[in-house]
C-alpha cells in the first residue's frame, strides 16, 4: 500500500511531460542540424535492425547470381575434380541403384551452381537459409531437367534434423563453411545424414597457409574478417577459416583432401584464392 501512495497524481505527470516537451522543443530550435542528423541516424538504425538481415539476404542472392555468371571455366574445372568420385558410386537405395542414380544433399546450394556436376536422374535435396535464392535457383534449374528436386529446405545446415539419418548417398558443400555459424554442428549433421560409406564432397576457400610467400594475403584475410567488413558485405563469409581440422575431428573413416590456389577472375577475389578440396567417406 505504501508503494502505491508514492505514485504522483495525474496533474504532476502531465506537468512533467509538458516540461520535457518544452525542453525538447527548445533544443530542436537551438540545434536543428544536429537534431536532423540524430533523427536520421536513429531512423537508419531502426531500419537496419528490423530489415538489415532481410536486405543483406536479398542483396547477397543477387550478387551471388552475378558472380556465378562471372566464374571462368577454369574455376569450374578446378571444382570438378572432386566430383569425379560420383561416377563410381552406387546408391544405398535399391530403387535408385536400379536407376543408376544417387540421392544428394547440397547444403548452401545458393543458385544451384553445382547442377552441372551431378549425374543424370540425381535426386537432390537442398538446404539453404536464404529464401531469396529461390528465384535464381528456379531459373537455373530450368536448364537441368535431368535433376529431380526431392526437397527444398529453407534452413541452416546446422538445423537439418528433418533429414533422416543414414539416408543420403552424398553431401556437397561448396563455398559454404566460410559462412556457417557452427561448423562442427554442420559437419556432424553431414556425417549423420550420410549412409555408411557415403561421401562428403567439399570445395571451400580457406585461410592462406603459406606464411612466407603470401603473408600479405594472410594479413588481408585476417583484417577484412576481424573488422567485420568482409562478413558484412558477403553475408557472414569469413576469409580466415580452415574446416579441415573440424572435418578430421568429426570422425570420417577416410578424408582425402588437398590445398591449392583457385583460378579466380578478378584481382580483389585473390583474397579468397586459397582453397581446400576433398572427399570424406563416412
Ligand atoms: C558463397 S554462397 C555459395 C553458394 C554455392 N554453394 C556456390 O558454390 O556458388 C554461400 C551459401 O551458403 C549459404 N549459407 C550461409 N550460411 C549457411 C548455413 N549456416 N547453413 C547452410 N547454408 C548457409 C548462403 O545462403 C549461400 O547460399
UniProtKB/TrEMBL annotation:
Signal peptide: none annotated. InterPro entries: Methyltransf_11, SAM-dependent_MTases_sf, Thiol_S-MT. It comes from the Eukaryota. Transmembrane segments: none annotated. Residues 105-202 form the Methyltransferase type domain. CDD domains: AdoMet_MTases. GO terms for molecular function: S-adenosylmethionine-dependent methyltransferase activity. This is Methyltransferase type 11 domain-containing protein.
